[in-house]
Amino acid sequence: MIQEISFSKKVLYIAGYILVLILVLAGCQSKVNSVTVFGPKELAIGVVLPKTGQHAELGKSARQGIEFAVDELNKIGGIRGIALKATFIDDNSQPVKSAQAVSSLAEQPDIVAVIGGLTDELAFAGGIQANRRKIVFITPAAGAIGIPELGPYVYRNKMNYSINAARLAEYLFQIEGKRSYAIMYPFNEYGVNMAEIFARRIKELGGVVAGKESYTVNTYSFNSTIARISSRELQVLFVPCYASELPGIAEQLYQNGVMTMLAGVDSWTKDGKVSQGIGFLEGAIYTSSFYIDSHSRNVVEFVQQYKQKFGETPDTIAAHCVDTVRLLAQCIYAGGFNREAIKNELLLIKNYPGLTGKTTFGGNREAEKQLLFLTVERGEIEKIQ
User: Fold this and answer.
1) What range does the domain containing 265 cover?
2) How far apart are CA 46 and CA 66, in angstroms?
3) Which residue has better confidence, 342 or 362?
4) Could you tell me if 138 and 25 lie in one domain?
5) Which of 48, 205, 233, 357 could form a Cys-Cys staple with 369, CB 3.0–4.6 A?
6) Does residue 21 sit in the same domain as residue 95?
7) Contact indicator for 367, 157 with CB cutoff of 8 Å
8) Which one, of 202, 259, 207, 273, lies nearest residue 229 by Cα?
9) What is the domain count for the chain?
10) Same domain, 23 and 97
11) DSSP assignments along 366-385, one per residue
């Protein structure tokens, strides 16, 4: 097994490394690709997303969510009659580019806030720079511990890894009554973090973690990892994998005779649901903050309109981005058209009825949301009541 690393130390290393790069690159300018989604150039939010590079697919979902929300807002008259504009910059999936982009946007007086940081590294880079430049920076996707702690201008509109993994552990132990667990996780910052948090919470509750086994990211064969798990006594196998990995993992677990309950988090989903490998996931339980088949009028209308606009189903990132734009619009409407007012108004958000659940920002600038528990029954995704 690959030797595990301390996630907290890794985060500090990444943050320190990024800060050095930012200081070296201070004064560098990025070329801005300004996209007016609708209306005159009156008021703008900056958006830093990966249009290219390894995270381009995430960037596509995020951009569509933001365009949807901005267009929707402007169709009803904007904010107090002023149209909203989104100014996009491609961070190329690189932390240094993320920092440069935020710096460039902060120098433009009509930019009142920035949405960005779709991965942990990009969020750390953008957040450090935004806080230095005193402009609100909200990540709708990064879950690493420590991002809002970068400073008073940095927010997260998503539940962090710690809350997600801990609440899943509590549900499985306290509600489902499961006592013995194993963990199979991707060997990267995300996987190590989720595995550590989940295992720690299970042990605190009095459960047993029989083992933690990692696998190499981007592999297609999980048999060697599964072999180390299959001989153990367990009731639940926690697999915080990605949607692209889930079908292969689920099928190979089945082929190796591992029939235990699988558990995961919203990284399992693509296009808002578990779209592949579902035949091997009967009885699995996973968490999400967005349920695409919700009967909520808010969600039903969003899914229909999103499909009409883009010809595809919205995923969790798109939903979080729509909520993020709407939250900023509410803060602008209530507090005025300047950066300090928006920063202060975000702290006053209480139970905002978003697509990803009621949202409240505490003093730590972390979004507090309701976590949904979903299961697979007869090949269909169902919400656990």
Assistant:
1) 162-288
2) 11
3) 342
4) yes
5) 357
6) yes
7) yes
8) 259
9) 2
10) yes
11) BEE-PPEEEEEETTEEEE--
